[in-house]
Design brief:
It is found in: Cell membrane. The protein contains six helices and four strands. With 153 residues, it is of the alpha+beta class. Strand 3 and strand 4 form a beta hairpin. The radius of gyration is 29 Å and the shape is elongated. The N and C termini lie far apart (74 Å). The model has no long low-confidence stretch (mean pLDDT 84).
Length: 153
């Protein structure tokens, strides 16, 4: 356990050093698998150098953030980054799907649309079977019923 903690501490210190130190970090948070840094100077981190750190799976630049992909041990590494840089802890980002909480007015048009969408959604999976059945029907129409009866007996 001590060895793992030392590995997380070394990884946290190394990441902080490679992204420009605590002076370059405006804020840091994490999600399920990534450390998310808001940096003062986004040009400082060298992606290849950060990727070489043992335990780092990759890096991304998205949404104005510098994201270091760690994996399932991100909580431990995050704690070490915050401790080694004396940074303020932000709340972790919870990645949930946005739920539409708006109430939709019930009109004849919306009800009809919903019913047709449900019917279309349930019939879509059987389209390949209908196509295959129609191909067999076409084959019977072209060859006639006699050759099929000969093979069947």
């Amino acid at each position: 356990m001590k060895r793992k903690k030392d590995e997380f501490k070394a990884m946290g210190v190394e990441i902080l050093k490679k992204i420009g130190g605590k002076e370059n970090v405006a804020s840091v948070t994490h999600c399920m698998t990534r450390l998310r840094f808001n940096l003062k100077d986004m040009s400082f981190p060298n992606d290849n150098e950060v990727k070489k750190i043992k335990g780092v799976l990759g890096v991304m630049r998205a949404g104005g953030q510098y994201q270091v992909v760690i994996g399932q041990t991100v909580n431990e590494v995050y704690d070490e980054v915050v401790a080694s840089g004396n940074l303020k802890q932000d709340k972790p980002i919870v990645e949930e799907r946005a739920q539409n909480t708006e109430k939709v007015k019930m009109t004849w048009k919306s009800v009809g649309s919903t019913i047709l969408n449900k019917i279309a959604g349930s019939l879509t999976p059987i389209i390949p079977m209908l196509v295959a059945a129609s191909m067999f029907k076409m084959l019977v129409a072209v060859l006639g019923p006699a050759p099929i009866l000969v093979f069947g007996t």
